[in-house]
Design a protein that fits this description.
441 residues, mainly alpha, Amino acid/polyamine transporter I, two-stranded antiparallel sheet, 16 helices
Length: 441
Amino acid sequence: MSKTKKQISLRSAVGIGVGSMIGAGIFALMGQAGSIAGKAVYISFILGALVALVSGYSIARLGAKFPAAGGIVEYVVQSFGVNIFTGGVSIMLYISKIIALALLSKAFGSYAAALMDMKDNILYVNLFSFSVLFGLGFIHYFGIKKVVKFENASTLITVIVLLIFAVVGLLYMNPDLMAPNQYPAGDKILFSIAITFFAFQGFSIIAHTAENIPNPGKTLPKAIFISIAVTMVIYTSLAVAVFGNLGVNEVVKAKDYALAEAAQPVFGMLGFTIISITALFSTSSSINAVIYSAVNITYQMAKNGELPGFFAKPLGNSREGLLISLILTGILILFLNLLQIAAVGSITVLFIHAITHLGHLRVLKATKASGFLVTTALIVTLGLTVMFLIYSSQESFTILILSLGIFAVSMLIEFLIRVITSRKVEKHSKKKIDKGFFKTA
């Protein structure tokens, strides 16, 4: 490893993982998961964490063997080669980033509207969502180096506020509200795991740092496991605190801003305000990070021939992929609600993980991973994908159609790119990975 390359310690890698998962995920998804699993949502978070752990093991082993800024994009190519399928999966991964942007922006809009006493007013929710999305996009146009400190401070403040709320909420909770006889049917809990897993999917960001981690074979799995464990403790504590102070109907009614609503019985209106403001900082911080990631992915894909070349062209201090990403995200914000976005995002991410684990089985000799654990990761992620598709077919054909459509559209886009542009897609390699214009701030 080059001496000039900044090394990332285990502690820093854990910080990256927790920062990627905590805060925005719980603000956006607590109410959505709770609307399915009810009082048992804390069990769903524990199970979601277990799925993330076994999936994280597979991704950690791949990251150690194939360290690259592209992460899953690289692993799929190494497993299946360069073809329409792997190109389509790369596009699907990009779409998942757009879905994450829409989820976070919509969550920001929901908390902002609630804070301004405009609860459930879709016009204002969308207005606030567009404002934060394009406002941060404007910052990226001029460069993001100045907001890195804001990212770190926002994560720290969010974790501290959530821990205080969890501890006090647990102390003041009404045990009767968490009685097992109020739990929903077991299938509801299983269906909700897809949503709670989505709250942990930020752990894969750690794998992108593999090139800069000393002894990644040991450090990468540790960082992923520790960050998921820490996040699980916080998530489950918050879930019990929320449902131990509110009835299911109250949470479902306020599902888009459930944490703020749950703070009222304990802290009054001041608690509602503090949690709402924390949500605004946390979601905006995460939006900024996902924009950065999405533009980075499209830049690399364009350089490799998996997207049209204009995605790699400069746009201010960013790339043209920035504007396209913002427009696509804006469309999702306009036409979908938070639950629909969360559901489609969950199915897409689970399917991408399943494909990654399937590919991992093809390169087991290279990664020296446990075949049992990788197979378990494949079965669990694929099983959850199918289960949630079944649930979606019963609850909302919109979610089912969008989820299936994303896969079809991703493959179609990749096919058309190859036919229309006649561009040759380059096979990735450790030596050829292009990190583009992004530099470590």
